[in-house]
């Protein structure tokens, strides 16, 4: 029997050898795992709460509410109302009398231009050379002259045939006729399809879009 065996003990309790066995504490792996999982859960909950606070102070809550309601703050484009039906309608070409006057040194332009305007439905008045005050003094393609009342009626309609022409009114002028004075850079009237499109757009302008925020 070994000297390490207590008296009266033997069999399976017998201790052999000359050293006492080293007594170790049981490892606590399970407790450590539980501690790690609990810490991670606490950190996750704390981080989620922090994000919620950030959203509240930065407006994230409003975005979530808007998404839930199916609305957003993006600007919406809305067409402005069409012109009032009470607005004065533009005259038709057949009701406009045009005097075609040549202010250049090139001959035959007044007659040729008057014939083309007649084909397009305008009434033709005087055809010939421009008066002295305009003769050889119109530097652009042409000039449109008329009474004050023609500024927003006859002159815009005639202007569809010669885009870019200068428009002037004479307060003391009588009658409804308007003048087309041919200038130095004049080549020809606008092509009829282009003039027709411009006339249609002038008579029925498209409503201008306006932006409005949704919230």
From TrEMBL:
<feature type="region of interest" description="Disordered">
    <location>
        <begin position="195"/>
        <end position="215"/>
    </location>
</feature>
<dbReference type="Pfam" id="PF13399">
    <property type="entry name" value="LytR_C"/>
</dbReference>
<protein>
    <submittedName>
        <fullName>LytR C-terminal domain-containing protein</fullName>
    </submittedName>
</protein>
<dbReference type="InterPro" id="IPR027381">
    <property type="entry name" value="LytR/CpsA/Psr_C"/>
</dbReference>
<feature type="domain" description="LytR/CpsA/Psr regulator C-terminal">
    <location>
        <begin position="95"/>
        <end position="186"/>
    </location>
</feature>
<feature type="region of interest" description="Disordered">
    <location>
        <begin position="65"/>
        <end position="93"/>
    </location>
</feature>
<feature type="compositionally biased region" description="Pro residues">
    <location>
        <begin position="82"/>
        <end position="92"/>
    </location>
</feature>
<feature type="region of interest" description="Disordered">
    <location>
        <begin position="1"/>
        <end position="22"/>
    </location>
</feature>
């Amino acid at each position: 029997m070994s000297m390490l065996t207590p008296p009266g003990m033997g069999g399976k309790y017998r201790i052999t050898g000359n050293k006492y066995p080293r007594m170790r504490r049981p490892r606590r792996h399970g407790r450590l795992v539980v501690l790690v999982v609990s810490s991670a859960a606490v950190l996750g909950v704390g981080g989620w709460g922090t994000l919620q606070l950030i959203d509240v102070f930065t407006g994230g809550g409003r975005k979530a509410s808007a998404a839930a309601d199916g609305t957003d703050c993006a600007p919406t484009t809305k067409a402005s109302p069409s012109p009032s039906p009470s607005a004065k309608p533009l005259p038709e070409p057949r009701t406009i009398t045009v005097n075609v006057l040549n202010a250049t040194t090139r001959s035959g332009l007044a007659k040729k231009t008057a014939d083309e305007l007649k084909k397009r439905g305008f009434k033709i008045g005087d055809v010939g050379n421009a008066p002295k005050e305009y003769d050889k003094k119109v530097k652009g393609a042409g000039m449109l002259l008329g009474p004050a009342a023609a500024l927003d009626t006859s002159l815009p309609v005639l202007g569809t045939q010669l885009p870019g022409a200068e428009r002037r009114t004479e307060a003391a002028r009588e009658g409804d006729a308007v003048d087309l004075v041919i200038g130095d850079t004049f080549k020809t009237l606008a092509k009829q399809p282009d003039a027709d499109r411009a006339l249609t757009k002038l008579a029925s302008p498209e409503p201008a879009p306006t932006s409005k925020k949704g919230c």
